[in-house]
Amino acid sequence: MGGLLRDAWVLARKDLALEVRTRTGIVSAVVFTALVLTVFNFGRDPTAVAVIDLAPSILWVTFTFAGVLSLNRAFQLELENQALEGLLVSPIDRRSLYLGKLCANLVFLLLVEAVGLPMFALFFNVAVLKVLLPLAGLIVLATVGFVAVGTLLSALVIRVRFAELMLPVLLLPFLIPPLIGAVQVTARLFSGRPLSEVVGWLKLLLAYDIVFVSLATLLFPATVDE
Amino acid sequence: MTLQSRGRWITASGLLFLAAVYVRAIWFTPVERLQGGAQKIFYLHAPAAWSTLLAMGLVGVASILYLLMKDERFDRFAAASAEVGTAFACVMLTTGPLWAKPIWGTWWTWDARLTLTLFLFFLFIGYQLLRGAIAEPGTRARFSAVLGIFGMVLVPFIHLSVYLFRTLHPQPIVLKPSAPSLPDSMLLTLLLSFLAFTMLYVGFVTQRYALGGAQSHVG
User: Fold this and answer.
1) Does the CB of B179 have a partner CB in chain A at under 8 Å?
2) How many beta-carbon pairs below 8 A join chains A and B?
3) Interface membership of B119 toward A (CB under 8 Å)
4) Do residues B111 and B169 touch, judged by C-beta distance below 8 A?
5) pLDDT of B181
C-alpha cells in the first residue's frame, strides 16, 4: 500500500512539475474560469433575480466546466512521443498510475478553484469569508468526486475520435449527484443555515468519493491493459 | 430453432400478453378516485421504468462478467441490453410527461427523479456513443465494460438523491419497506404489466444478441 501511494506521488509530481514549467494549462484554466464567471454575470437580469439565489449554481457550474476541460488534458499529455507506453512498461502498478493522475488532477483543479473562488466573491459580491472553512471543505469533497470519475473516463476516451466532446458527454451524468449536493450545501452556507441541515448531503458526497475512488482504482487496469 | 426466431417468439408472446394486460387495465381495473383516467398510464410508465433499470443493471452485471472472464458473449449481451434499455427509457420519458401534464399541470419539472432518470438516459446514449467510436472489438468491450460498471454504481446514488432532494414524484408504491399502498386489483394489473414488459425485454435482447452474433461473423 505504501509503495502504491509512493509511486502515485512520484507520477503526480511529474505531472505537476510539467504543469508548473509550461504553465499553459493552469493559466488557460484560470482565465477560462474568469471568463465563465463573466459570462454568467451578463447572462442574468440583476433586477429580476437576487444574486444570492443564483450564486451557488454559478459557482458550481463554473467549477464543473473548468473540471471537464482540465480533465481532458490528463492523459492527453501522455499521448505525445508514446509517453503512455513508457509509463506502462515501467515497473509501477497500474493503480499507482491512476492514483497519480487523480492526485495531479486534484491539485490542478483545486488550484483553479482556489483562484476562482475569490473572483466569484468579487464579481458577485458574495461574503465567502464568513463560511470559508466549511465551503473549502465542501469544495474538496465535491472535487474529489469530480476528479475520481473524470480521471478514469478521460483514460477511456483518450484514443477515441472526438475525445474533447466525448468526455463531457460521458462525464456530466456522473457529476450530477455531487453537483446537486454541492449546490444544496453551498446555498445553505450562503444563507447562514446550520450545517446540521445538510448532513445527509455531506454523507452522500463522502460516500460518492469513497465508492468512485475505490471503483476507479480497481477498474483502471482494464482501461490500459490489452 | 435459431436464437433469432426464439427471440421473435418471446417478443410476439410478450406483445400478445401485454395487449391482454391492457384490456384488463382499461376495462377491468378500478379507476383511481383523484386522478381518473390519467392514472392508467401508470401501467405503461412504471413497467417501462422497471425494464430500463433492469437493462441498466444487467449491462452492469454483464460488464463485470466480461472483465472477469473476457468472454465476448457477455460484451455482446451488454450491448444488446443497453440498446433495448434506451428504447424503454424513451417510453418512460415520453409517458411520464403525458401523465404529468393533467396531474401536475406541467409536462416536465426538474424534480430529482425526473432529472436523474433523464441523466440515466444520457448515460445509455453515452455508452452507445463510446461503443460506436471504438473500432477494435477487444478495446471496445473493455472500455464499455468499465463504463457499464460505473453506470450501474451510479444508480443507487440516483435513488439516494431522490430522498434527499425535495421531490414531487409519487413515492415508491410497491418496492418500499411497508406493504404496497394500492388496492389488490390495481396491484395485480401492475404486476402483470411488469411481467409483460420483462418478457418484451427478454425478447428484444435475445433478437439483438443474435443479430450481434451475426454481425461479428460478417465483420
Assistant:
1) no
2) 84
3) yes
4) yes
5) 67
